[in-house]
Structure to design on (260 residues):
C-alpha cells in the first residue's frame, strides 16, 4: 500500500503563552493523542509524545522559547499513542503502576490494526470510534518511510510520579493526581491556583474507554468535584467545567451498570 507524504507530521497550536498543543493529524482518530508542551521558568514539560512515527524532540526545541532549558517527558500513561516519543527524552516520568509498561511496552507496538485483539477492536467500536483503517496512519512523514518497520520503542522511567507529588517548573507547580480506570497508572497534572487540569485519558471530550469500570467511576466522581477552569484531555479539544460535569454525568450510569 502506498500512502501520501504528509506536508508536516505534527500540527501545533499555541493555547496560551506557555502551553502548546501538538497533534498527529495523519493518525487514526482512535490513536490521535494530544501532546502538551508546557513551558516554565526553569524547566519545560512535554506531557505525552504521540505515536513515535516521526521525531518529536526537534519540533519541540524549535517551539521552545529556550531550547537549552531542561525538558522532562511526563507520561499520562503508557499506551502506544502517549509514549511513542519517550525514548527521545533524557528525563522520563510516569506513575509506578505503568513504569514496566513504558520500559517494555506489552500492548500493540505496530501500525497494523490487525495486531489489536478482535475483542479490543470491538470495544473501540462499541465505545463509538469509527472502524480502524488497515494501518493506523493515512500518510507517511517522509518519502520512503516504511510503516511495516515501525516498532513502538519504550524507555525506562528515570523518575516516578505518584498522587500528591509536585511537578515544579519554577514559576508554576502542578500537583500529580492519580486517575486510574482507563489504565492503572493514569495521572493528571493539576494546577489548583488556575484550575488548569491536564487529564490524560482519564477524561476527554470523546468516547471514553473504561478498562476497569468501578475504578473509573471513582476517578470520574473525583474529577467532577474539581474546580477546573479548563481541562486539557488526552484526546479531543479542551473544555470547561460544565462540559466536564456533562461528560461525567453521561458516563457514570454506564459504568455503574457495567459488570465488575
Ligand atoms: Zn489515548
Ligand atoms: Zn490510553
Amino acid at each position: 500500500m502506498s500512502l501520501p507524504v504528509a506536508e508536516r507530521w505534527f500540527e501545533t497550536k499555541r493555547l496560551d503563552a506557555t502551553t502548546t498543543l501538538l497533534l498527529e493529524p495523519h493518525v487514526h482518530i482512535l490513536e490521535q493523542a494530544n501532546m502538551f508542551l508546557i513551558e516554565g521558568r526553569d524547566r519545560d514539560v512535554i506531557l505525552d509524545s504521540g505515536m513515535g512515527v516521526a521525531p518529536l524532540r526537534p519540533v519541540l526545541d524549535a517551539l521552545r522559547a529556550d531550547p537549552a532549558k531542561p525538558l522532562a517527558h511526563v507520561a499520562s500513561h503508557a499506551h502506544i499513542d502517549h509514549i511513542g516519543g519517550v525514548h527521545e527524552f533524557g528525563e522520563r516520568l510516569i506513575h509506578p503502576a505503568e513504569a514496566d509498561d513504558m520500559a517494555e511496552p506489552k500492548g500493540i507496538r505496530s501500525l497494523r490494526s490487525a495486531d489489536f485483539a478482535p475483542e479490543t477492536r470491538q470495544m473501540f467500536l462499541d465505545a463509538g470510534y469509527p472502524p480502524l483503517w488497515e494501518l493506523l496512519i493515512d500518510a507517511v512523514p517522509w518519502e520512503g518511510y516504511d510503516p511495516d518497520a515501525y516498532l513502538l520503542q519504550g524507555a525506562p522511567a528515570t523518575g516516578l510520579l505518584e498522587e500528591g507529588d509536585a511537578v515544579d517548573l519554577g514559576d508554576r507547580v502542578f500537583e500529580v493526581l492519580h486517575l486510574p480506570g482507563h489504565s492503572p497508572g493514569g495521572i493528571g497534572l493539576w494546577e489548583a491556583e488556575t484550575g488548569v487540569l491536564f487529564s490524560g485519558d482519564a477524561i476527554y471530550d470523546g468516547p471514553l474507554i473504561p478498562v476497569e469500570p468501578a475504578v473509573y467511576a471513582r476517578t470520574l466522581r473525583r474529577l467532577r468535584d474539581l474546580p477546573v477552569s479548563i481541562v486539557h484531555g488526552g484526546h479531543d479539544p479542551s473544555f470547561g467545567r460544565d462540559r466536564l460535569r456533562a461528560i461525567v454525568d453521561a458516563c457514570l450510569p454506564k459504568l455503574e451498570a457495567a459488570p465488575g
